[in-house]
Amino acid sequence: MHNKILIIIFFILFNFKLYAVSNHNKLFLSGVKKWNKWRIKNPNIKPKLIGFKVEGKKFIGMNLTNCQIENVKLIQCEFIKCNFSGSKFYNVKIREIKFISVYFINNIFNKVTFSGYAYKLFDKVLIKNVTFINCELYNGGIENSLLQNVNFYKKGSILQGGNSRIGGFKISKSKLINVKIKNTGFHNFRIDKSKLINCLIHSFS
């Protein structure tokens, strides 16, 4: 009898979690106005955005703080004056995206691929207290931005497979403070017209 009760409780909780994820995805896709209104009414909820694809959308002033963003594909979208602070990204594909005047503070990016195809992926962006683990950045760039206390590396001090890689990527007209790019493969990676303070850049290539 006790085991049956536990199974029922587990089933209820599991289905409630699935409902919550589905509801959060729908709210996100419904647009900035509805999403921000819901966030104001539910300040303690940490949204779970899991398992969907967004293409060709523009998001202006969206509150995307403290979200769990997982198994998501973002393609040819624009995020302008949005706040991603406190959010965690896992296995996210970001392609031809523009982040303009966006806040990334206290974030973790794990197994995230950024590909710009000559886009300025990040422009006038604040990236602070952020860690990139097993990420890849291709054919894009960061301009007019501040990077502070940023770590871009494979977790752990021993070089293993699946490290972070930067290819065809440029950081320009930006300020870098306490930025560590280590155990990272470089291919056509440049830093131009930028100010570096207490930075460590080390490639395994």
Question: Helices, strands, pairings?
Answer:
Blueprint: H1 2-29, H2 32-41, E1 48-50, E2 53-55, E3 58-60, E4 68-70, E5 73-75, E6 78-80, E7 88-90, E8 93-95, E9 98-100, E10 103-105, E11 108-110, E12 113-115, E13 122-123, E14 126-133, E15 136-143, E16 146-153, E17 165-172, E18 175-192, E19 195-197, E20 200-203
Parallel strand pairs: 1-4, 2-5, 3-6, 4-7, 5-8, 6-9, 7-11, 8-12, 9-13, 10-14, 11-14, 12-15, 13-15, 14-16, 15-17, 16-18, 17-18, 18-19, 18-20
Describe this entry's structure for a reader.
By secondary structure, the chain is an alpha/beta fold. It has 2 helices and 20 strands. It has helices spanning 2-29, 32-41, and strands at 48-50, 53-55, 58-60, 68-70, 73-75, 78-80, 88-90, 93-95, 98-100, 103-105, 108-110, 113-115, 122-123, 126-133, 136-143, 146-153, 165-172, 175-192, 195-197, 200-203. It has a 20-stranded parallel beta sheet that branches. The longest helix has 28 residues, at 2-29. The N and C termini lie far apart (60 Å).
